[in-house]
Amino acid sequence: MRRIVTYIGGFVLLVMMMTMCGRLGGANEPLPMDSIVVDTSTVVGKNNGARYHLALNVKTLADSTYRALNVALIDSLLTPNIVDLYDTAGISPRQRVEQYIKSNFAAYKAFYGEVYDEEPNAGTASSDYTLTTEMRRNDDGIVNYLGHMESVQNGQSTTYTIALNIDLKQQRILALSDVVANPSDEHLVKSIVKQLCKQTGADDLTQLESNGYFTHTPPYAPENFILDSDAITFIYIPGEIADREKGEIRVSVAR
């Protein structure tokens, strides 16, 4: 009888493990994903005076148990001061995106409505914002969620990436302090400076500064990072630590 109970217990444990593996997957297994795709525009003023175009392709985890996590991912990518106007309780990821669009368009119309009320013959203006996302699992089982943005204002384009790192077991987005004990640690910051010197051909921080890096801020480790099993890739968006013309800057250091 004891042996039968042991077999049954072992079988139940095996089923539980298979269920978890099927839900979370191994390091090399694809993640079950859905996509929220929206392409829409709004116009303010006569003769297409001001046009605002949004094109969003937001990937989400397909399992409904990750609803709150999916909403948190969307909120981390889209403008916080707009989406925070709404309560997140019970809301779906698609509804969250729709709220973002509605509020963004309302703010745009309010701003340019005043412009054209004061000056009906004001020139035309155009804004285009594109967001595409990708989700991948690394060797540690952490999911890297990358949002690739392009903002075009009257023909001038800026591209950058926002990286989020997801612990699926805990269903939360990891902060840098979850990965390194002290994000402001001198050794970590020096490693970033050393690697950036290698990438740019600079000898030291002083030369980096003379080349236009860290001129308005001391070196630091940003919260925008990609976590891999053996390295952390820090991402600085255009204008963050150097002239905007230098574009997005990535620096990888060993963990």
Explain what this protein looks like in three dimensions.
With 255 residues, the protein is α+β, with helices and mostly antiparallel strands. The chain has helices at 2-24, 67-77, 80-83, 93-118, 186-200, 205-210, and strands spanning 33-44, 50-61, 125-137, 143-153, 156-167, 172-173, 225-227, 231-236, 249-254. The strands form two sheets. Strands 1-2-3-4-5-6 form a six-stranded mixed beta sheet, covered by helices on one side. A hairpin with a 4-residue loop joins β5 and β6 (172-173). The chain is flat and about 55 Å long. The relative contact order is 0.11.
The helix/strand series, from N terminus to C terminus, equals HEEHHHEEEEHHEEE
What is the end-to-end distance? 51 Å
Average pLDDT taken over every residue:
86
What profile does the largest beta sheet have? Answer: 6 strands, mixed
Q: Please compute the radius of gyration using only Cα atoms.
A: 23 Å
Task: Say how many strands there are.
Answer: 9
Structural class: alpha+beta
Instruction: Give the overall shape.
Output: flat
The number of distinct helices, counting runs of at least 4 residues, comes to: 6
Strand fraction: 25-35%
Give the strand line-up of the largest sheet: 1-2-3-4-5-6
What is the helical fraction, as a range of percent? 25-40%
Query: Which ranges are low-confidence, i.e. pLDDT below 50, for 5 or more consecutive residues?
Result: 1-24
